[in-house]
Amino acid sequence: MKIAGILLIMCGIAAILYGGFSYTSRKKAVDMGPMQISVTEHHSVPIPPILGIAGILAGGALVYFGIKQGR
Asked: Any alpha helices (H) in 1-71, and if so which ranges?
């Protein structure tokens, strides 16, 4: 439980610092035999700060109860 809690805390901090992530996708726009045209699209996915805070709190709870359970 402690490892999962630490991972959640780290992911929550990363979500707050970066605010989201972006990725690039390619798709074919025209395919006429030997001639092909592809289009590159950039997408961004925002992550609300409240999810980062929730991850930090949930991770803290897992670490806290994992330490209590280990005694």
From this structure: 2-18, 49-70
**Closest listed residue to residue 12, CA positions, set 46, 44, 49:** 49
Q: Shortest CA distance to 38 belongs to which of 20, 26, 51, 21?
A: 26
Task: Copy the structure tokens of residue 17.
Answer: 């610092």
Structure-token pair, residue 24: 């690039």
pLDDT tens figures, 34-71: 888 999 999 999 999 999 999 999 999 999 998 888 76
H/E element holding 36? strand 35-46
User: The tokens of 53 are what?
Assistant: 């805070």
